[in-house]
């Protein structure tokens, strides 16, 4: 999607940008497409360990099972300019949120939040990191990010509270 000045923008952030945040990026892209809306959507990591790499093979397989293609995505690290480019920077867990809060320039326009806090009545705050676990963990991550993105889309894309 192209970056339009009137379109909201979302950056999803996890640790290395190869598991959780790419899945969230894909889930949000699907949500806006299904609603026939426009938004600027990307993902990044707090670290640069996987810079330029495709998402984890298990994340790509999970995306494929849900009819999405993660192959074109490439990992990157959050940059200072992201705090001006994006309206909403959404962390996948509290450690990412803390890192983003330290990085955020004082005059930044970006609103920082945790993905799961957008889901009404959800008490968990962190999307679990599936990296060190079995492939089944990626399916759990998918369900969490999909629910979070549905809630985000309902809140920010179908209302005037941008």
Automatic annotation (TrEMBL):
Keyword field contains Hydrolase: yes
Residue ranges of the region described as Disordered: 42-70
SMART domains linked to this entry: LMWPc
Listed Pfam families: LMWPc
Domain (Phosphotyrosine protein phosphatase I) ranges: 8-155
Keyword field: Hydrolase, Protein phosphatase
Record-listed E.C. numbers: 3.1.3.48
Composition skew (Basic and acidic residues), residue ranges: 50-59
Gene3D superfamilies the record matches: 3.40.50.2300
Superkingdom of the organism of origin: Bacteria
Membership in a protein family: Belongs to the low molecular weight phosphotyrosine protein phosphatase family.
Identification of the protein by name: protein-tyrosine-phosphatase
Origin species: Bombella saccharophila
Upper lineage: Bacteria, Pseudomonadati, Pseudomonadota, Alphaproteobacteria, Acetobacterales
